[in-house]
Specification:
There is one protein chain. With 357 residues, the chain is of the alpha/beta class. The chain is 37% helix and 16% strand. The chain is built from 10 helices and 14 strands. It has helices at residues 11-22, 39-48, 85-95, 116-136, 171-190, 212-222, 241-253, 289-300, 324-330, 338-352; strands at 2-6, 26-31, 66-68, 75-79, 99-102, 141-147, 193-199, 202-203, 226-228, 235-236, 239-240, 276-281, 287-288, 306-308. The strands form 4 sheets. Strands 3-4-2-1-5-6-7-12 form an 8-stranded mixed β-sheet, sandwiched between helices. Helix 4 links the parallel strand 5 and strand 6 (141-147). Helix 1 (11-22) packs across helix 7 (241-253), helix 3 packs parallel to helix 4 and helix 8 packs across helix 10 (338-352). The chain is globular and about 55 Å long. The mean pLDDT is 95.
Length: 357
Amino acid sequence: MKILVTGTAGFIGSALADKLVERGDEVIGLDSINDYYDVNVKYGRLERAGIIDNLEDGKDIEYNSIITSSKNRNLKFIKLNLEDKENLNRLFENEKFDAVCNLAAQAGVRYSLVNPYAYIDSNIVGFINLLEASRHNGVKNFSYASSSSVYGLNEKLPFSTEDSVDHPISLYAASKKSNELMAHTYSHLYGISTTGLRFFTVYGPWGRPDMALFLFVKAGLEGKSIDVFNNGNMLRDFTYIDDIVEGVIRVIDNPAKRDSSWSGKDGRLSTSSAPYKIYNIGNNNPVKLMDFIEAIENRLGVTIKKNMMPIQAGDVPATYADVTDLVEDLDYKPNTPIQEGINRFVDWYLDFFKVKR
């Protein structure tokens, strides 16, 4: 298959592109390489993939020019904004994709309180541009990242794709729910198979520097304190990166189908009479925040000083994924233990940042 993977300088996108080309798919990766977080981490991912030779080369990546990986000729990369409709359409016309996996987005719940327009530009305008480009170029296999954040004020655990998600508490969550609605519309009108993936707190090597694991490890190594929100009374369904990637690949290989039993009177929320599907991808095993911190301390051999804080605006106190459909439809369930995943992250962190202990 020839697959467009957006967000390939990002955490999940880079890992997915690596696995797809490893198994023989042809991948064109797209990313704007914005500066929401340390671009050296993004350049490091591109270096690992053979798109650039060293971190400094990242500064010279030409906009809208395709680069072929030096490590695998089945992997190519283009620096492009999803909001750039003209050049995005030209890319689709030239490359004739079999499938699209959209992992590019303006991420972060708290940042959406500071810069809401970034979420409209990337997550709404960019998303409709991808749907339109797919529609006009015959792409029928379209998967995309949603988020556990869409569950918002829902207090019923575990979170099920059959639960209402009509009460988001951040613009980031609202933008992801909007993606699901837009995708269904294109499935209904144009027969595009769309599958939304509600990711639950993804972590692991090459992770995002704005995420808790990155911040906590950095503070632990530097002897600094960390802010622990909601006074530590948080539950998160932490999901290891390799588990996420395996789930995404299974979705790409099994595009959404029409649910022949679906009815507008009492139909399921996660399927439709159109070729549309929503999945949770989580570890199905929520971890207490304080236990998560303890696992980091175990690996580092330190006790981290903690500043107990109230819950932040836009945060939810607990996430917990019901992955029944993932198991039944795709015969898959994430299963990496939290201590194992944290150990792998710390090993990567020490190596990438050349930390001597």
